[in-house]
TrEMBL record:
<dbReference type="Pfam" id="PF02738">
    <property type="entry name" value="MoCoBD_1"/>
</dbReference>
<dbReference type="InterPro" id="IPR008274">
    <property type="entry name" value="AldOxase/xan_DH_MoCoBD1"/>
</dbReference>
<dbReference type="GO" id="GO:0005506">
    <property type="term" value="F:iron ion binding"/>
</dbReference>
<keyword id="KW-0560">Oxidoreductase</keyword>
<keyword id="KW-0500">Molybdenum</keyword>
<dbReference type="GO" id="GO:0016491">
    <property type="term" value="F:oxidoreductase activity"/>
</dbReference>
<dbReference type="InterPro" id="IPR036856">
    <property type="entry name" value="Ald_Oxase/Xan_DH_a/b_sf"/>
</dbReference>
<feature type="domain" description="Aldehyde oxidase/xanthine dehydrogenase a/b hammerhead">
    <location>
        <begin position="28"/>
        <end position="134"/>
    </location>
</feature>
<dbReference type="InterPro" id="IPR046867">
    <property type="entry name" value="AldOxase/xan_DH_MoCoBD2"/>
</dbReference>
<dbReference type="InterPro" id="IPR037165">
    <property type="entry name" value="AldOxase/xan_DH_Mopterin-bd_sf"/>
</dbReference>
<protein>
    <submittedName>
        <fullName>CO or xanthine dehydrogenase, Mo-binding subunit</fullName>
    </submittedName>
</protein>
<dbReference type="InterPro" id="IPR000674">
    <property type="entry name" value="Ald_Oxase/Xan_DH_a/b"/>
</dbReference>
<dbReference type="Pfam" id="PF01315">
    <property type="entry name" value="Ald_Xan_dh_C"/>
</dbReference>
<dbReference type="InterPro" id="IPR016208">
    <property type="entry name" value="Ald_Oxase/xanthine_DH-like"/>
</dbReference>
<dbReference type="Pfam" id="PF20256">
    <property type="entry name" value="MoCoBD_2"/>
</dbReference>
Amino acid sequence: MNFQSSTKADFKVVGTRVARPDGVDKVTGRALYGADFNVPGMQVGLILRSPHAHALINSIDASEALALPGVKAVVTSADWGVPEDDGLRDVQDNCLARGKVLYDGHPVAAVAAKDMATAKAALKLIKVDYTPLPHVTDVDKAMKPDAPVVQEGRADESVPAGAGPNVTHYCEFGHGDLEAGFAKADTIVERSFTTAATHQGYIEPHACLASYGNDGKADLWCTTQGQYFVRDLCSAIMGMEGSQLKVTASEIGGGFGGKTTVFIEPVALALSRKCGRPVKIVMSRVDVFRATGPTVSSSIDVRIGMTKEGRITAADAKLRYQGGAFPCDTVDMGAQSAFAAYDLDAVRTEGWNAMTNRPRQAAYRAPGAPMAIYAVESVVDELCQKLDLDPLDVRLMNAADAGTKASYGVTFDQIGLKATLEAAKEHDHYHAPLGENQGRGLSCGFWFNFGGNTSVSLAINADGTVSVAEGNPDIGGSRASISMMAAEELGVPYEKVRTTISDTSALGQNDVTDGSRVTFAVGLATIKAARAAIQVMCGRAAKIWGIDEDAVIWEDGAAKPSGPNAGNFEPMTLAEIAAISSETGGPIAGHHEVNAEGAGVSFGVHLADVEVDPETGATEVLRYTVFQDAGKAVHPDYVEGQMQGGAAQGIGWALNEEYIYGEDGRLQNAGFLDYRIPVASDLPNIDTVILEIPNPGHPYGVRGVGETPIVPPLAALSNAVSRAVGIRLTSLPMSPPKILKAIMAKG
């Protein structure tokens, strides 16, 4: 039997709602998060941050701080070399400014001291001489030729001649004849949109503990979405060999993409090396907002032509994204996503990334896609209104399907967009009546999903239990889903399997937990590792029975003869084979390492009902339903949680959340009192409808589900609010003052 290539369609464990393995630890406080690690002799680390949006650093004088009793070390960028690699240099310069500060909150120096009070006192004694420079925080202003220059010479080879000095990247996707397509249209709508930068809003701030030994080896404990990535970045910045730095991931109190890079970890290592003691750094909430990656803000133009029957004839979009003070290429993913839901003959998307005096952007669930699709889906909705067409029927008419050449060049395999649209059309939510000042919005959503480098080790223990080691932090229930797939494949109860997250010394390279890759890629590797162990166990049974290995099959957790010709032997269970493993050849294990491909793209459809108070502009979300293709829902509770969580974050993005900068370039709302994320009372019960259109790239048909749910809410809410007030709104967030202003302007 070819155990490696077989597929499975009938499940006993996968698809059930088993207990989560980390539940008891988390509700009792036993689970250890980033700030929970402590060791003897540990010093407190604090970081001094810039009060300017843009300024030259003329000098840093730490002599008074170092003279303070209890202060062990002070570090600046001078304690590191200057990497040749641009990307690594940007990470390093974001951790400690080199030459000039680029945004309000940019780290300048760091101190290690015996306690928090001493560290705070020491920060006040560090003298930094600045020369303030002109700044820019708006993307459209930053792209102008005469804009203040954030960094010189950072444009890559993609940027056309004549672009402004802050433009760092350009992209273009599409096919077909746009002008001919627009000539066929009965109606054309062209609109401009803006979206604000928003933060991932994770409850747990960044935290780490570094211990650098006299032997040149170091240990790092941190809250992260990828300990291997942290190891690679930190060892390079510190000038260490990767094998000399062991990184252990703590439990993680939320990340959503915001913990896929480093901010404080190299600083803690530098302080520990300098003072010879372990150093712990925990960011304050204000520092999290001022200096860790929010998503990009955007300015977008969209033009779409449609026939009176609802067929899209041509579509064009121009995306301008700012990603903070360092180059990024997030606009690529936005430009590729913009029209991915549609089967179009003529389409083009152009994108520009520009630097501003803001914190360096970080991923936030489907980075780049929500803004682009918000603009596109808003114009599609407006066309439906102008032509008096059903917005769901129009999307079904134009929906991408298997064989569609996507706007970004690929040809889709089996996808679930039409199935999600049809499910939405049949759902009672779509047909429920609306009252006065109420509106219903609809939006499609898309994400690519990733695979990537993955390494898994699975051990069959002598008592018949199973241990799985994988290298990706559990940020969405992966320990449960991985254990379920191992149990499914091996034919043992879920309770017999325990999955643990390994440090960087225990397994081969594992890519970051992002892009909705883990259930797909780690699940695939786990299944293959289980099949490798099954192969060994079948071989052990064949040896005991004295028959060929090919004459043994694995069914229901046991080795069995493949048929009457193979012999009349009683099945040997996994537990029985494991119990005598030392007598039949030694320990039994399965390993699998892969750079996984075939993740399969993901689509979803969201419906939102709102009521807008015409006297205040306040919006109440009355009803919300998410439809999404999960390929195969390994653990439906977790899938529903991902769908609901993305919708909740998208609702906040659409209605309230935004970074607000003053004329001085400083962030004005660096805290949850002024940066308002949705709380339970702001949200309705978010209903979910899981569809399962198998992904042919996975043995169980799994697709990632975590990114897509944040993509449709921006447009779904905007379309609902626009219909409720009778005005097309084009700027997010749609806060009460903005809505009230639009209502009053309408008269």
